[in-house]
Amino acid sequence: MFKLTNRQQRRSLWVLLVGILLLVVLLIPTTSWVKSSTKEQAAQHNSQLSPLIMIPGSSATKNRFDTLVKLLNQGSATKHSLLKVEVYNSGKITYTGKIRRGDTEPIIVVAFENNHDGYSNIKKQAKMFNEAFEQLVQTYKFNNFKAFGHSNGGLIWTVWLEKYYDEADGAKIKTLMTLGTPYNFSESSVSNKTQMLSDLIADREMIPSSLTVLSVMGTETYNSDGLVPEGSVEAGKYIYQKVAKHYTTMTVTGTDAQHSNLPQNQQIVSLIKEYILNQNGNRPGSKNRSNRQTSRVATKHEKG
Q: 285's torsion region: left (phi>0), alpha (psi -120 to 50) or beta?
């Protein structure tokens, strides 16, 4: 029988000890990572934070919704924090403001250095938003959120939902309100589909089936908010209707119904409180009739 010499035995023992030591060294960071990952997942799962994330339209800055947030906080027992995020073309992301401790429903505005119009830019902005969104989820650990987009901001949300959104990442979108969003750009009839609308319709199956969508338009004239044709806003139904859980279109009239004034429109403030925010203990999406202005807000249709 083959018998190891003392020297060979010592060498084998040394190799065994080195192997065990290397295994321990490798296991320490792995165990630490698993514990850290599990802790982060638990924090996200148990989080009470449910932010309202807003995206402005073309040429708008991170300050676009300052007046809207001020109006939302007026007369409200619950004051919403305001965090402004700006994404630069270089990939740099900056923050202004902060989320107040104990505020479970802060407002986060995400704007872009590249805030220009056009389909190619909207696709770039959707990608830039995704980078900011991932950072926000990682930093604040929320597991659900609501969305608001004015004008092209609604297009950015739509492209993002179809190209980047993944509920498996842990943050579920509950409600999306788009305001004066030109789903077919300046075209007033879907008979003349833009490339963007055709693409959004083609990828509509990626829209989450649990989503509630409210598409709101203003009417300065009988068929436009002064910039976006009514038919372009209504084209959103070809993207969301019968895919999202609920799809509703609404029209606001009267003062501040012009496209650029819509975010300051008092009816829009009421709709956000009624359908999106947890105002007065309501569920997001529930109807708080005390805030309704039914005489001037027309619901055109609601279909799943």
A: left
Tell me how many helices (H) and strands (E) the chain has. Answer: 8, 9
Whole-number Cα distances in Å, 173 to 87, 95, 208, 210: 21, 22, 8, 8
Alpha-carbon distance of 168 to 56, in angstroms, equals 26
CB atoms within 10 A of CB 143: 18
Sequence-distant (6+) residues with CB within 8 A of 61 are 86, 111, 115
Joined together, the tokens standing for residue 171 give: 């943050």
CA 270, 256, 177, 236 torsion: positive or negative? positive
227-273 residue pLDDT tens: 999 999 999 999 999 999 999 999 999 888 999 999 999 999 999 99
Sort 60 into a burial class: Cβ within 10 Å, 0-12 / 13-18 / 19+.
buried
